[in-house]
Amino acid sequence: MSAMTKKAKNFKKSKGGLYLSIGSTAFGAISVAKQAKLARQESDTLRLVDAAVSAAAIVTGLAILYRELKRLGDDDVLLG
């Protein structure tokens, strides 16, 4: 394993990496909100269901990332 690959894997488990993942996942919520709005305007039930499932996936992903962040910060007094 090269040094760059090892560094990238360690970044994924760092607080900075988790914050970046949370931000990019939350940014995906904007796309889902637009999709849901368009589906409601067009009365497209299938697209509305797709948006709801995507929103559930985003919420679940954020919850998992938040849990990982809390695990990293167990020794940190400010994170709780």
UniProtKB/TrEMBL annotation:
<protein>
    <submittedName>
        <fullName>Uncharacterized protein</fullName>
    </submittedName>
</protein>
<keyword id="KW-1133">Transmembrane helix</keyword>
<keyword id="KW-0812">Transmembrane</keyword>
<feature type="transmembrane region" description="Helical">
    <location>
        <begin position="45"/>
        <end position="66"/>
    </location>
</feature>
<keyword id="KW-0472">Membrane</keyword>
